[in-house]
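Hello, quick one for you while I still have it in my head. A protein chain has come my way and I'm curious about its shape. Can you walk me through what the tokens say about the fold? No rush at all, and the record is pasted right below.
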Amino acid sequence: MHRAAALSLLRGYLAGPLESGEAEMGREIVRFVETHEDCFLRSCLSGHLTGSAWIVNAARTQTLLTHHRKLDRWLQLGGHADGETDLAQVAMREAREESGLTELRLVAREPFDVDRHWIPERGDVPGHRHLDLRFLVEGDPAAACVVSHESKALAWVPLAAVAELNPSESMVRLVKKTLRYC
């Protein structure tokens, strides 16, 4: 599989301003992509690349979160690459599928954030890591959302309230970046 585009995105991301701990996380993801030709496939059982959309309103005061059915947590929208090597397109596809929104705008083709997180074993799928490239996407809170089978709920949440729903360092970092850079 062609990994050059993902490696270029990751290396460019590492050259920008980073929050605490991001450099090591980014270097870990680069090493993974360099050593796993099948990194875009969920059949890569140790982990695989995913693409997420951090959807915000035009004023950058709200974000659209999903209450993920399997993980039972409020998260940004996103998912598996399933062989697609353009992770910005993966993020956009997942955002549309999981929200029902059709009018979404990719703010930049460069990642807004990267993250690695553990996905617990479920059924015959062993526990593994998601190595996530997150892209900043703009959406309209007035547009009608449709909850997909992957979610329990969708909600536009004020940035100041995100940590009440999910206090993880990963989600807090997304809010901080939005407030700092947008």
